[in-house]
Design a protein that fits this description.
Helix content: under 10%
Number of strands: 24
CATH topology of the largest domain: Immunoglobulin-like
Radius of gyration: 27 Å
Structural class: mainly beta
Distance between the termini: 31 Å
Oligomer: single chain
CATH architecture of the largest domain: Sandwich
Mean pLDDT: 76
Amino acid sequence: MKRFFWRTAGWILLAVMCACDGLKIVPGPDGQLIVNVVVETPFGVRTKNTGVDSYVFLLINQTGDTLYRDTVGAIKGSALSLEPGTYSVVVYNEPFTVPAFDKPHFYGSETAHVIAGESCEVVLVCKQENTGVRVVFSEEFRQIQQNYYMNVAGTGGSLNYDGDTENDWGFFFPGQITLSLFTDGQEVGSVDRQVLAKHMYSFFVERTGTSQENVVPVFTLSVDSTRTWVSSIWNDMNTAGKGLTKETAYSVTEARELEAGIPDIWICGYIIGYYKSSTTLMAGGTDNETNLALADGKNETDINKTLAVNLTAGAIRDGLNLLNHPENLYRKVWLKGKTRDKYFGQPGLENLKEFVLE
């Protein structure tokens, strides 16, 4: 799903005259070119809230000569004259030469064929041409590591991510990037990934093993943040991404589409029963303490529209399970845990850390 931010700049490139019945185009040896600029950004992605007035506008002829260079805002309403011919219209927000935080590169170009005495309208869509990368460290990892950072290296340079950059997107050229994890000044592991233009990648770092000496970085990759992050304004450090807080929790329908292995994700739904097997949903049942079935509606009975929640022994099971708390049936609940591929045949949630009942 895409969300479009529309900013329009029109240029009438022909002599005009005003008459009592309005604006008239005066036929002549030159042609008319009207350009509309559109900025397209993925829905659900943190996007820099900027209009197109500051974007660079270039008009280039067939021989490659730049006939006009200015900002979109500066040429709004300008009356310019073009000889018949073929031209390239280019618009971009700012140059991108090295990896950097908060530097999405939006670019668009179209070919315009100008005919004498006629109008040529061009709709120019500026899309993100570089790649967004974000690194999130799980709470477990933070608890056992005091000094850590992730170095992400790509064409032209590298960026360091740590616990203070979780709300920051770094931008890279498409191609191969290398993620290297450092703790206490020493590299403990690295992985290579291929990243694509117009994509936003989120890397989650969690630990495995039972001791600090046995820490191994595990990278869980979510491709295309249209499913991973909520839309918000850049540099707003108080607005967390989708699923990172109770207030931005995923619905059951959304959670069913997430990658497996994403830690510390909030999901919200109604407790509608439990699972007896991978094919049997006990909707309305309360005689089980090891799992829960979540749905977006209280009256859901379709097993394929539910999320299976694993309740391991401990305080969360003690407070949520239906066997000891039948009053929790049909209550709305927010859960924080780790996504799981299949549990009782359905997408699931495990390793619960927190819960809130409405």
